[in-house]
Amino acid sequence: MLPFWIALQFLSSFPIRLPGMPSPEQVGRSLLFYPLVGALFGVLLMAFSALLQGAPLLLHAALLLAAWVLLSGGLHLDGLADSADAWLGGFGDRERTLTIMKDPRSGPIAVVTLVVVLLLKFAAIVALIEQHHSLGLLLAPVIGRAAMLGLFLDTPYVRKGGLGQALADHLPKRLSQQVLWAVAIGCVVFASWSGIVALLAAAGGFFWLRHLMVRRLGGTTGDTAGAMLELLEMTVLVALALA
Hints:
mainly alpha
C-alpha cells in the first residue's frame, strides 16, 4: 500500500509520513491510486456537506469550496496559476513558456484565472446543493485525478528531472488502462446519467487541453497537469449543474 500513501501525501494536505524514501517504481505506481485519493476527497466533501445541511446556502457552498482547497493544500491551483501566466507570457514560444512556468511569482493573469475558476466552482456547488445533487462532489475529484493518470499515460513529460519524471517513467501502462476503465464504469454504475454527463464533459476538456499542451510544449509538465485537474473539476461541476 506504499504507493497509495505516496499518492495521498503528494495530493493532499494530510500529515502523511512515509517510512523512507520511495523508489522511482513506487512513485510511478502511486499514480494508479490518484482516483482513489479523489474518491476519498469526494466522500469527505459529501460528509461535510451533509453536516452543513440547514446552513445558509452561500455559506454552505463557500465552506465546501474552502474545504476542497484545504484538502489539496492548493497544490493544483498553484499549477493552474503558473500555467496561466506562462501561456499568456510565453507568446507561443516553448522555451519561454517553460521558463515562466518555473517562476514562483504570480502575475495578473494568474490571479484572474484563479478567481474565475474558483467563482465557477462556487456557483456550480451552489446549484448542486440546491438540486440536492451531492454526487457531483464525488465525481469531480475522482475524474479530475483520473485525468492526471490518463495524461501521464499517453503524454510525454517534457521537463527532464522534474517532479513528474518518475511518474512518467515508471507508470505501469496496462494497469493504468484498467484503472481508467474501472473509474469510467464506476461513474456510470454509481451515478447513472450524471456519471455519463461528467465523463463526456471531462473527456472533451481533457483532449482539448492535452492538444494545447502538445502543440505548445510537446507534452506536459507538473504545472500543466495540475492545471488540467483544476479545470476538469470545474468543467464536471458546471456540466452537472447545467444538466
